[in-house]
Amino acid sequence: MNTIAVIVTHNRLALLREAVEAVRRQSSPVQGIVVINNGSTDGTREWLDAQPGLFCIHQANLGGSHGFAEGIKQAYRQQADWIWVMDDDTIPGTDALRDLLSAAGNQTIKEEIGFLCSRVEWTDGSPHYMNIPHIGIFNRQGKPFNQYDNLGALHIGSCSFVSVLVSAKAVKQCGLPYREFFIWGDDMEYTQRIIRAGMIGLYIPASVVLHKTATNY
Fold this sequence. Notes:
9-stranded mixed beta sheet
């Protein structure tokens, strides 16, 4: 499966470098990394331009929503089967992508998977409050949230863009995130849109990433 990572950044060079390195050292390697630089003025452009193997777009600071929409569009154009989306302060564990892809390719799951998301932790190992996916008792198709708990997966209704693996089929059917949100709400609307289109979303707690915000918002 052709998997391309998308990272959106703005003036956080130190974190971006850490995020890119974490993506590069995945036990299941990505086939490409797309970085959307939203008008950074801290040396990010110069560092990115010196890096091998990155596909970079430098644009004005049009907001995270515009960055994610542009990044997903570019990864889709590069014929990705799966698009791994994250912020520049997302530091994935070594096996984070492996565990997402393992669930994505599990043949016992008969529904069309639109997206899968990781367990997001803060720096002290606790759940990151702003990145907890929405779980209802039953999903939109009437399946219980724990239908696949023996596979380490739970049905969800939406999640954030902090380590979410989106299928190319979902992009083809549902389009891109709305750029007009600028920075908040685009991820929830987009993943809900994928669910409404008849696909499922899954939470994979074995896939762990660190969200290095200043506080646990």
